[in-house]
Amino acid sequence: MFGYYLQLAWRSIKKTPVMSALMVLALGVGVAIVMTMLTLQHVESNNALAAKNEQLFYLQLNSSPADELFFGSLENGMPRMVSYRTATTLLKSSIPSHSVAMFRSMFVLSMDDADYQPGSIVGRVSSRDFFSLFDVPFIYGKVWNKQADESAKYQVVIDQTLNQQLFGGGNSVGKTLRLEGKPYQVIGVVHDFMPVPSVQDLTMGKTGGNTHLYLPFGLVRAEQLTPYGQKSCAASDANQDVELGMSANEAFEVELQNLCIWLQFWAELPNADAKARYVDYLQQYFNEQKKLGFFARDFDYALSTPQQWLNLNHVVSNDTKVTTWLALVFLVICIVNTVALLTAKLWRQAPEAGIRQALGASRGAIFVQNLVEAGFVGILGGAFGILLSQVMLMVVRSILANNGAALLGTDSSIYSTDSTMLAVTVLVALISSVLAGLYPAWQVSRTQPAHYLKVQ
Amino acid sequence: MFEFGPIWRTILRNKISALLIVIQVSLTLGVISNAAYVINQRQQKMNITTGIDETHLFTLSVKPINNAPIKNVDIERDLNHLRQLANVADATSVTSVPLVGGGWSGGVHVGEQGDTDFQSAAADMMAVDSHGLNTLGVNLASGRFFNEDEIVECIDARCKFNVVLLSRDLADALFGKGSNPLGKQLNFAGSHPTIIGITQPFYATYLDHSYVNGVLLLPMTNVVASSSTYLVRAKGESRDSLMLQVADELRKIDSQRVIGDSVTSSAQKAYAFRNSRLTVTVMQFTIVVVIGITILGIVGLTSLWVNQRRRQLGIRRALGATQAAIVRYFLIENLMLTTLGIVIGVGLSLFINQLMVQHYHVSALPMRYIVVGMFGVWLLGVLAALVPVLRAAAISPALATRSV
User: Do the Cβ atoms of B146 and B132 come closer than 8 Å?
Assistant: First the structure.
């Protein structure tokens, strides 16, 4: 029976091609706009650390000076990062099972191979727990040892992509690359860790936190590494003034001990008890430093889970949210519109329905027959919508690319439909079409056969 | 004359179809007025005048391969060479890339903390050399710009500045609107530089003055010793070809360094506003399509209605009703529904806006958007209905009353 209904539906669509095309078009456009916006939102709201969301915490301390807030402080009133002095102290705590202090730094990368064209590369300078905290598995070699976090060891960990690029893949442990002209030994190769958004470091935009190169934290002092990215200092910080005539080393030491914030700090706290003890520890540290005159404000902190951290940083922009809501209202308009057009179309077929009923078809059968026709239109609309949404995403990508997404290394190709979104699209299209078909089908099934038989 | 009574009773007999028109009209008004407002706000944001000669400017950075510190003489050598090029209007070193959306900012003060006349403001700081103002293309409002011998060389340690320039908006924030702070002293990062000039307001690194009050120009060539950034102003239409030429020239001067990609200031600005541009495009597309869909819906529903009443229509015509009377009847019917939809739509617009204000920091929808939207949608409804109605009125009474 279903096959027969489908046949009827197809015949009916062919009978009124313009009207049917308009319905398919209207529903398709509605589905496409909603799906485009939902895809943008879906990509932007991805949480790559969801699996460990309850154990990982991003640390903020209320370290702004008394009379001003650090630039870029978040809604919770606290700065986004911590100072070197704070980070190195907190790294010593054994309460977290892993803790990571890190920042991005820029290097000139060259190889002993004279054919290799030297270029700039952004590397992540981090304490060794980075790989275990964020679950980045090693393919070859292992992480640097604990001493490398405290004193200079000229070692690096690279990811698969960089390994392919520099050494043509394979086990490159023990090979050498040059940063700022100095030789560094590769001691490990890890899988690429390129989440979008780069939840591990959101200070440089949606994907700015991802790097292919990792360096031990102990190099900071020896190589006088400075962040390539955000660094905020306080004008009123008494510790920051470098005296004229200081040597470069003395001046850098001042930079390491002042209030300026430039490091991201993550702690892995496996349970509530550890978290409570860690907060106590933070409070103790904070008050101690306040007594020393380092901090000026009262103790306050935030330990945000990856999801909370994404929300706090407004990774999904308000623009995207507003547009998504308007797109949903737009889909409702399209559905209402399809209801109207379908009602008009099916009403014209009411005489046929009357005759079928007179010949013994039940109301239910008429209803189902018309619903099949409505659903058919809906599926065509949905299919059209999926195609159109791909076109729209292409437009979105080109708009972002034309406006310099490549400028800061943001790859606009991340805005594409994955299997989840495809499933959601199909579902949205189906639900929309059934919703659009229910009323008209019901309306037609209620017609009085006598009315049409009379006129006939 | 106007058959309001009978029309209203007819509508009540056909509630659902009427309701569909009303819903469609109200949602359309809700979407259009809010989307138009968001578009307008974003466009205003994107159309800001930066005050710098953004279409002729580009930056590029140089970084020695062996981490050798860059000295002032190197920078001067590079810049002097670039200034000789035929298509270069001027060039300077900068501490941050113009319009990049964030950079070096901080508090600047007047007087000492605790004084009664102590004032603070947040400044967008940019250090340039004596060619800075001309390269940026910013005009002086009063005073003078830095002389060559006032440019400080900074290596590693924080610098002491003797002279600074403020943009007009920063001067307003620190000294009061329209004040003349020339010759006065600023309290900033442990030094007390003298203000020697005021520039017209402009945007340096930040494109949004919600964080900073204005720009502070400092006389300095390099702050990060391991790389330096040059800002070049091109003559005429030569920017794009000049970008390649400048990189080549710098490579020729010293091959032992990495020359970064040249980026135009226009590109920086476009990048900063790319999300706004995307929003505007999506909203504009939505508005156009929503209008099309609504016209389609009203034409469809009105056709249905008219067709359902073909026989009655024929009888009325046979009994002496003119074509004009038929058109009037359907138009009034349509007007009543559209108007009802618009009334609900105004409420809906305000409701949608209220939600956006609460959750997404959008400002309140000005009444004129609703009023314009109301008339627009109203006209849309009537025009869309006109098509099937005119067709219906043209039917001859004999044809309409004959059985199908």
Answer: yes
Specify whether A427 is located in the same domain as A320: yes
- Taking the C-alpha atoms of residue B2 and residue B331, their distance in angstroms, rounded to an integer, is 11
- Minimal Cβ distance to A244: which of B109, B157, B271: B157
Q: Is A186 in contact with A156 (CB distance < 8 Å)?
A: yes
Q: Which two tokens stand for residue B194?
A: 């003298």
How does DSSP assign A22-37, residue by residue?
HHHHHHHHHHHHHHHH
Q: What crossing angle do the helices spanning A363-402 and B274-308 adopt, rounded to 10°?
A: 150
CB-CB under 8 Å, B277 with A403? yes
The domain in which residue A231 lies consists of 51-307
Distance of alpha carbon B128 from its chain centroid, rounded?
28
What the block records as the tokens of A250 is 């003395």
Query: What three-state secondary structure class fits B199?
Result: strand
Residues A379 and A294 grouped into a single domain: no
Give B382→chain A minimum CA distance, Å: 17
B24 → closest Cβ in A240, A322, A336 = A336
- The 3-state secondary structure of A127-172 reads CCCHHHHCCCCEEEECCCCHHHHCCCCCEEEEEHHHHHHHHCCCCC
Considering only CB atoms, B304 lies closest to which of A180, A330, A343, namely A343
Cα A287 from Cα B152, distance rounded (Å): 40
User: What is the DSSP pairing of strand A98-110 with strand A155-159?
Assistant: unpaired
> Do A248 and A387 share a structural domain?
no
End of a domain among A282, A307, A332?
A307
> Considering its fold, how many domains does chain A have in total?
2
- Number of Cβ pairs closer than 8 Å across A and B? 202
**Residue A25: closest CA among chain B residues belongs to which residue?**
B293
Distance from the Cα of B361 to chain A's closest Cα (Å) equals 8
Contact B158 A403 (CB under 8 A): no
Q: Are residues A6 and A126 in the same domain?
A: no
- Per-residue pLDDT tens over the stretch A349-404: 778 888 888 888 888 888 888 888 888 888 888 889 888 988 988 888 888 777 65
Tens digits of residue pLDDT in A139-161: 999 999 999 999 999 999 999 99
Same structural domain for residues A57 and A38?
no
* Residues B233, B135 contacting (CB under 8 angstroms): yes
Picking from B211, B290, B404, the nearest residue to A330 by CB comes out as: B290
Model ipTM value = 0.78
DSSP 8-state symbol, B215: E
Q: How many residues make up chain B in this entry? A: 404
Tokens of A437: 């078909």
- pTM score, whole prediction: 0.79
Q: CA-to-CA distance for A431 and A423, rounded, in angstroms?
A: 12
